[in-house]
Write a structure and sequence with these properties.
The chain is about 35% helix and about 25% strand. It contains 18 helices and 29 strands. It starts with 6 loop residues before the first strand and ends in a 13-residue tail after the last helix. Strands 10, 11, 12, 13, 14, 15, 16, 17, 18, 19, 24, 25, 28 and 29 form a 14-stranded mixed sheet that branches. A six-stranded mixed sheet has the order 4-8-9-7-6-5, sandwiched between helices. A five-stranded mixed sheet has the order 2-3-21-23-20, covered by helices on one side. Among the domains are: about 130 residues, Phosphoenolpyruvate Carboxykinase, domain 1 (3-Layer(aba) Sandwich); about 55 residues, no CATH class; about 150 residues, no CATH class. Helix 9 crosses helix 11 and helix 14 crosses helix 15. The C terminus is likely disordered. It is of the alpha+beta class.
């Protein structure tokens, strides 16, 4: 299965095969026919009467017609939500079991009982002849159905999206597609469209003093308020003095508008350790900004194997991990990337490398190491199932799913080489508006910087396009039109209500990862290093407001004063 002359995949054993073994590397290397989003991807099943029932009937017919095919069923717990997967795919089952905490593991790590029954059901079946390659989601039934794809990345993303809808609606917990790292006990969150430097920025910060790795892809955020007893409470539901109940993400707007006038309303919520708490509104300090507590989502990280390009020491653990869609590379790729591969290989052979790394690479030889690194880098969507504690050490990684880090700084990442701005502080208006139009380097748009939310993408994007068009015609800010709009898509309103809380809780910035445009920089690694210095100073000093450009960012990196922006403070 040739691709672009730089790399290729071994052909399938049969035309209808969804998964097969690739050329060995690591513990395993599964090749999947589908290596991205399925041809059919429908998150609007609830709007089509009878659609879900028909999909589940197809599942039943397949099961009845193939009693000899081995099926797998396995429950996991994702931030307190129990999810059950049913599949006939050995690869999906294998990665599913590794990726998440089982109910038993959840109890052992957190000391808390898992939910007794699943709240979300997942059906993923390959070789279903009567169905197209497709993915479906029903919010009403909390059910996901996949046909004829064994690519784990899409399944994981849709499951996270489905869990996120439950958490926001019922618990007021925010699910964010982002990477997180702790620096000197301060949580730093990167929210970014695909391909703009999210993983590079998070791994790059691990060289900073006091760094601890948190998340690579997805975080859960609870917005909590201090109480008179000294504890933190993340509200889940409010019993108002009129006898109404306000639940989930709606509690925050209610507290803003009515909290001072209803001090006897009862608030039910969660403590930072997930304990149940109940207080009166009058016992909460609503004058203080909310605290944003971020939690990990995965047990074993499913991530791109090309992290070796910016973190070559990860190659050792990747070679002890399970991989997905790691290709064979051509002499042309080795020739084009020869300089970079030699540089990365040199770092693995350096005296400063850990002893076990040097032993491994010495046994392989430089040519073999370069070939293995090339295979990990060549295909952008090659993935690995990686135990992050093995890379940084258990003491430098968050492993307990109920241990939070408090977020202090948020970076929206983009990569637009047509702009001069490098760093800008963001108030609520700028923060929300820029989240609406996240753009990948290949000019695809991701609403809320997240292509995987369990929403009607067309409905949301239609409104956003209308808002920006109307704002341009009237010469007004899009945010004013959004705020006054009565017929917003429910999922979009939900998302930005939670993002408003994030903006109140932490310093928010837009970071444009374009330092490669600086004529003084000749290597990508130097651009990455200077970007890390910008992030580190911003986190350390919590400066607001500020605007940096390609002309003045070096003064900032060197600790010199820079002109502050006007009117951007939150």
């Amino acid at each position: 299965m040739a691709t672009n002359g730089l790399y290729s995949f071994p052909p399938p054993p049969s035309p209808d095969a969804a998964e097969w073994d690739g050329t060995p590397i690591g513990k395993s290397n599964t090749i999947t026919r589908t290596k991205g989003r399925t041809a059919v991807h429908d998150k609007t099943v609830d709007a089509q009467p009878g659609k879900l029932e028909a999909l589940l009937e197809s599942v039943s017919r397949y099961r009845e017609g193939h009693p000899q095919v081995k099926e797998y069923q396995y429950d996991v717990v994702i931030h307190g939500i129990r999810v059950r997967a049913h599949t006939n795919s050995p690869h999906l089952y294998d990665f599913w079991v590794d990726n998440w905490y089982s109910p038993q593991e959840w109890a052992a790590e957190t000391g808390q009982d898992p939910p007794p029954e699943p709240q979300i059901q997942v059906y993923a079946y390959t070789e279903v002849g009567e169905e197209p390659e497709a993915a479906y989601y029903s919010r009403r039934a909390n059910t996901i159905v996949f046909f004829n794809t064994a690519y784990y990345g899409q399944l994981k993303s849709w499951v996270l999206g489905a869990v996120g809808r439950v958490l926001a609606e019922e618990y007021g917990i925010h699910s964010v597609h982002g990477a997180c790292v702790e620096v000197e006990e301060k949580g730093v969150l990167y929210i970014a469209p695909t391909g703009t430097g999210k993983s590079t920025s998070s791994y790059g910060m691990m060289d900073q003093p006091g760094a601890r790795f948190h998340s690579d892809d997805w975080v859960y955020i609870r917005y909590a308020f201090p109480t008179n007893s000294g504890s933190l409470l993340a509200p889940v539901a409010i019993a108002t003095q009129e006898g109404r109940e306000v639940q989930g993400f709606r509690v925050f707007r209610w507290l803003e508008e009515f909290g001072d006038s209803q001090p006897r309303a009862r608030v039910r919520g969660l403590g930072a350790d997930n304990s149940s708490l109940e207080v009166e509104v009058g016992e909460m300090d609503l004058s203080a900004p909310p605290r944003a507590l971020a939690y990990i989502s995965e047990k074993v990280f499913y991530l791109r194997s090309n992290i070796v390009e910016n973190f070559p020491l990860a190659a050792y653990e990747l070679l002890n991990s399970k991989l997905e869609n790691c290709p064979d590379i051509s002499p042309k790729f080795l020739e084009e990337q020869g300089g970079l591969l030699q540089h990365l290989t040199g770092q693995l052979f350096a005296d400063s490398s850990p002893r076990e790394v040097k032993q491994l690479v010495s046994s392989l030889g430089k040519a073999s190491v370069e070939n293995l690194l090339a295979r990990m880098m060549a295909f952008d969507n090659a993935r690995a199932m990686l135990t992050i504690g093995n890379i940084f050490g258990r003491e430098k990684a968050y492993l307990n799913p109920m241990q939070p880090v408090e977020l202090k700084t948020i970076f929206l990442l983009k990569r637009d080489f047509q702009e001069q701005a490098v760093l800008e502080s963001l108030g609520e208006e700028e923060f929300i508006m820029r989240l609406m139009v996240g753009e990948t380097p290949d000019k695809k748009y991701e609403t809320a910087y997240n292509a995987y939310r369990a929403v009607d993408d067309k409905e949301e994007r239609s409104l956003i396009q209308a808002l920006f068009g109307e704002a341009q015609e009237k010469g007004v800010a899009p945010y004013s039109l959004y705020s006054s709009r009565q017929n917003k898509p429910y999922t979009l309103y939900q998302e930005f209500e939670l993002f408003r809380m994030l903006n109140r809780a932490a310093g928010c910035y837009h970071l444009n990862t374009i330092l490669r445009n600086d004529p003084q920089i000749t290597e990508t690694q130097e651009a990455v290093r200077l970007t890390m210095e910008i992030i580190a100073r911003t986190v350390r000093e919590e400066l607001q407001p500020i605007t940096l450009t390609l002309d003045n960012y070096r003064n900032y990196v060197e600790g010199k004063p820079v002109p502050q922006a006007i009117g951007l403070s939150r």
